[in-house]
Each structure stands twice: as C-alpha cells, then as structure tokens.
Amino acid sequence: MLKQVEGSIGVAEAIGLCRPDLVCAYPITPQTHIVEGLADMVRKGKIKSNCQYINVESEFAALSVCIGSSATGVRSYTATSSQGLLFMAEAVYNAAGMRLPIVMTIGNRAIGGPINIWNDQSDSMSMRDAGWIQIHAETNQEAGDLHIQAFKIAEQLSIPVMVCVDGFLLTHAYEQIESSTQEQVDEFLPPFKPMQALDCDNPMSMGAMVGPEAFMEVRALNIAHFDNAIEPIQKISEEFEKIFGRKAGGLYEHYNSEDADTVVVSLGSVNGTVKDIIDEYKKDNVSIGSFKIGCYRPFPGKQIVEQLKHAKRIIVVEKDIFAGVGGCLANDMTVAFKDTDVKIYSVIGGLGGRPIFKKSLIKILDRGMKDELEDLSFIDLDQSLVEREITREDLFMTKAV
Amino acid sequence: MSTELKPGFCQTGDLTAGNRLQSIDVVSVQSQEDRANSLTSGHRACQGCGEALGARMAIDKVMELSKNKVHVVNATGCLEVFTTPFPETSWNVPWLHSLFGNAPAVATGVQAALKAKGMEDVTVIAQGGDGSTVDIGFGCLSGMFERNDDVLYICYDNEAYMNTGVQRSGATPPTARTATTPLSGPHPGNNFGQGKNVPKIAMAHGIGYVATATIANVRDLEAKVAKAMSMKGARYLHIHVPCPLGWGSLPKDTIKLARLAVESGLYPLFEGEHGVITGVTKIRKKVPVDEYLKLQRRFTHLFKKGADTDDLAGVQAIADAHIKYYGLLDDGDK
Lengths: 401, 334
Description:
The complex is a heterodimer of chains A (401) and B (334).
Chain A: E1 2-6, H1 7-17, E2 22-25, H2 33-43, E3 52-55, H3 59-71, E4 76-80, H4 82-87, H5 89-97, E5 103-108, H6 122-126, E6 133-136, H7 140-157, E7 161-166, E8 174-178, H8 182-188, E9 205-206, H9 215-227, H10 230-244, E10 252-255, E11 262-266, H11 270-283, E12 288-293, E13 295-297, H12 301-308, E14 313-318, H13 328-336, E15 343-348, H14 358-369, E16 376-378, H15 383-400
Parallel strand pairs in A: 2-3, 2-4, 4-5, 5-7, 6-7, 11-12, 11-14, 14-15, 15-16
Antiparallel strand pairs in A: 1-8, 6-13, 10-12
Helix pairs in contact in A: 1-2, 1-7, 3-5, 7-10, 12-13
Chain B: H1 50-66, E1 70-74, H2 78-83, E2 95-97, H3 103-116, E3 123-129, H4 130-136, H5 138-147, E4 152-157, H6 198-204, E5 209-214, H7 218-229, E6 235-240, H8 244-247, H9 254-263, E7 270-273, E8 276-280, H10 289-293, H11 309-326
Parallel strand pairs in B: 1-2, 1-3, 3-4, 4-6, 5-6
Antiparallel strand pairs in B: 5-7, 7-8
C-alpha cells in the first residue's frame, strides 16, 4: 500500500513491524520523530510484542539500557544523531565489543562546534570504526526497508547495526512509500535467538576483564567476524527483494556506471541529486555514471574495485570532513584503489546543512572529467573568506608575539 | 532492626558476623553452610577486602530470598576487576559488566527485558563502588531512581578510587589522604565542605527504600537486603566497606574499622522509605573519632606534632552532627 508519510514515521512503522521488545531513547541532541512515533505505537499497543518504551536521561543511558536488554536476550532499538551519538560513544564501542545485536538509527547531522543541528554525515562517520555495521539509505522507502534488514543482519551475525538516514532531507521529508505488512516482515525476520544471554539456569559472566594474555585474540576475532559480514549483508538484501518485491540495501548500486569513464561515488540521499545530473549527461552521451555505496562498514573495498576498476576517474562526493583525514569515504576509496590506475578525487559538500545544488555539482563534475580538479575540493565554499580569515589570524598572532 | 536477639544465648551480641547460637530463623545466611556462595573463593581481592565481604553478604542474601533467581549488573571497578579476570570468574550468578558509568541504565535494560520475557520473578541487582555510584555513574543512577525501575542498586563505599591507586572520589571524607588529595599545603588531605551524600540524594528521589549498612553488622545488612527485596521499584543500599590498601589499615582491622565508623557517628546507619527516615541504628557505645582514624594511615597527619587541631576537630564535628541529625544516641547518653 502506498502512503504519503514523513520519513521518520515511515521508519517508525517499519521498526514496529519488526516486533522490538525494547525501544529506548533520549528525546534530544538531536532526535527525530522516529522515537516519538514508536512511543505512540507502544502506548496504543500497535506493536505485536511486549514492547516497552523507556524514557531516559541521556543518549549514554539510552544505549546502555539497550546493552542490558540485548544481553538479556530481547530485540532492542535506539536512535540518535550528532552530539547524542558522541555522548554515547563509550557505549557504542562497548556494544560492538560485546557483540550485542542492537539496531540504531542515525538521523545524520553535523557535529560541533560550532553547534549546528542540520544535515551532514560527520556524526556516523565519527563512529565508522567502532565495530558497528553502517548502512545508508538513499530514500525514505529504503530507510524503512533497511531497518527491517538491519535486525536480521544484526541478529544473524551478532553485530550491532547503524542505519544512517540523512537528517531533515529524509527524516523530515514527506514522500510516498510502500509500506510493508506484518506477514511479509514475519516471513523475512525470524524471532531473535541470542548467541548468548543472561540465564539463571546457566549463570555466566559477561563482560569480564581481559588482560594482555588474551586481549589481542579477542580483538582479532571480533574484527574477523566484522569483516565476514559483507557477504551476508548482500545476501539478506537479496532475500528481502524476494519477499517484498522491491530492492533495498545491499553493498552497492550502479547507475549508468557499469562501463562509464567517470563515476561519482556517494552515500545516502545525495545520490538522488547525482542521478538527476547523470540523466542530463546521458542525453549528451557523456560517459559518466553514479555508484551508490549502501554498506559503508564493513567497507566492501574489494567488491567496489571489482565493479569500478574500468573507470578512468572516481569523484567521491561526501558530506563529512575530518582533521588529518579529509573525506572519510574518499580516504577509504583511495586505500581500496591503491593498486589500480583509477584517479580518486575527493569532493566535500553539504556540511552543516548547506544544500548541494545541481548546478554547483555539475561545475565540479565538468572539471573532474577534464582532470582539472584538485585532489580535494569543496562544493560552494567561499574560499576567499577562508583565506581572508587565515591572513587576519596570522597577523593577529604575529602582533601577539 | 527487625531481627530479634535472644540475649541469653548470645555470646558476643550482634557485633560478630554470623551467630550460630541463634535460632535458625534469625541466624545470618552467612553463617549457614548451605548459603549460595554467590561470590566464591579464588578471586583476586586484597587480604581483608571489605568490598568482597560486603558483596558476598548482600548477594548471598538476595540469592536466598530470590531462590537463586537473580541477574547482577556490575559497574567497572575493584569488584569487577578482582572477580572476573578472563577466563575466570568468581560469580555463581548471571553477571553482566558493561562500563564504569552505566550500571544503573544497563540494569534498567535487563529488567525491561525480563519483563518482556514474562520473567519478572527474577531480581535485578546493579552494583558498584563509590566512584561509579556517586561520581561517573550518578546521572544514570538518578535516572533509574526517577523512573522507579525495579532494580536494587547496591553501592560498596570504600571512600575513594581504590582500583586505580587511591584517588579521591565524591565519597572521600574530609582530611583523608589520597593520591589526588596529597599531604601538602596548610590543610593536607581532602577538603572540608565537599562530597556527596548519595543515600540522602536517593531519599530525595522519593524511591521506595533507601538504607545504609555495614559489613560489621551482618544481620542488620541482611535484614536491609530482605526489606529491600520485599518491595518493587527502585531501591538503594549503601554499604560501608573498609579498604586496607586505600586506607592504610591492617587487613585484620577491616570489621573493627567498619564498626568504629558506626560507633563514632561518622557512618550513620539508617533506613528510609519514600523520602522519610523510618529507622536508625542507635550507637551502643560512642567512641571519639580518634579511635577510628588512628587505625588508618590516610589520617596519620591529623595526629602528627604541629598538625592543625582544627582538622581533627572538624572530623569530630561531622560525627557529632550526624549523631544529632539522625538521633543516634539514646537521650541519656548525650
């Protein structure tokens, strides 16, 4: 059934169909309507489980409650973004280390300072190496569908999953989506059978202190399990398509890029804009396509190289930048393509909610196709203002000395 | 407390841990051969560790009353480190450790999961030292109290961060020497006028039950666990546990110190329900704080030649204030 709903509500309804036993969230820093929708569904008994909604005092507590409930063997969900994700950072790593299959939505937003509540992807990127699987939604349809897949991925592999959904651009946008039925979800997603849980009949200690004599083996094991997730993530996406009759998730998606000279690679909702641009280039028979990465962690580097090794150049467009790294996705792509002749360009845009306009991106891509781009460039950055400030601050520091 | 002693059969009163001469219905769980032994031997606590003793006393009683249906969530700290060096564990209960500052929230999750599974007969305990309770985990603790989650939280208070080399916590008493309140400056040791009284803060949340207990009085401790177990919702038990390593005391003096803390008035034993104090344990034989302090190297500077006598007087004033506030002496003894 097609419905016109806000992205957050579509996601909430998809989660509800997954019969979670526990939803726990902090309402701010910042939150979306997803958890408000779930709170209402729990109150009205719309979720077909003994689902409880727990209000807590912080994101750190929210994920900690999920750690307790998941370790006791029930399906557990939380959501956050931006500063809230940073505030729960210690628990983010802990949940992954304990291999608790929690599902968390990240309504992607910028991290401060300066404080800024709008969309970019630096929040989930800041936790990219925490040991959580990270999958990105392009549309609100996919946002809902990825949550249904996320519980299956998490519980099958005993690894927590972050579903990254662009804040505002998706979470607050109204789109037509096809909702799933309880029967479809039940057929796809079996009841949660924990790998290990607290049990009075079989008392065991979980979360013991591990010293130098075993810590390296524990970490190596953890990383090996994580890297092995790539194949199941693809397989689960295919199983989803069989039951629901529509595509969602998976490792990657080609859009006219199977044999293009230039390929634009990006994560999340910006792929919509990129596809529109590709359609325009197509009319002029320009050899350019786009390639969406659906699964960012674990990073399917080998698979991506296999798909794109024909390209002359890859232009990575992403909404994050980190000191000493630059764009995280571009960094990962550069490492993956180190043994090829494919040139990787890094393009940063959309930080702190600045819109990525088609005409701005086209300018960049035109230059890229002529190999006139710098290794790192920005979309719609007022470079003169930045340079003026650097000069002024240099002057100030010289005087201060 | 509610345990009634029969004076004629009592050799040493209730000051001794356990008393086999009492009838079986008042004898402590600790003195019974078939106790659960929730925290078994072989763990790596120091000799004379008050926390190991307190945890075993409390959880054994919980095990008895819950018929072994208990889940324990443990904060990071001494108790966690010395009981579970992977791949060993001393716990005979389902036990979960996550982080230093989140044990109350994790316990909330465990309890909610049990509810979802229809297993609300399982008792959920969260426990930690004073550092995780009064400092880093306090936000989660207050949240758990405020939601009135069905969790019994037990704090084992040894008055500083002992596991990491004796640093000051919000529960460290004034004048005590720690690694971060060293013996230098005009007022050596920890400052006056600071610190956090979590039992009173717990009371202010209006939760069903709050009590302080001591390892020097096992029957009182067990009775308070039993009282807490008879209720639902958030409950808080604060147990004073001397630490030979951090306090600079002899392992053999652990119980003696715990008793002197009570008898001097520095550690008042009381119970409260829904924000109101409902009972205090009177001091039998009041002792000056000197008797308690002199057995601990963390306070030796108070008794050195040239020490500021105001510091010692300040500690005595705290004890006197407790005695007055809680009414710890019978009127005739004042």
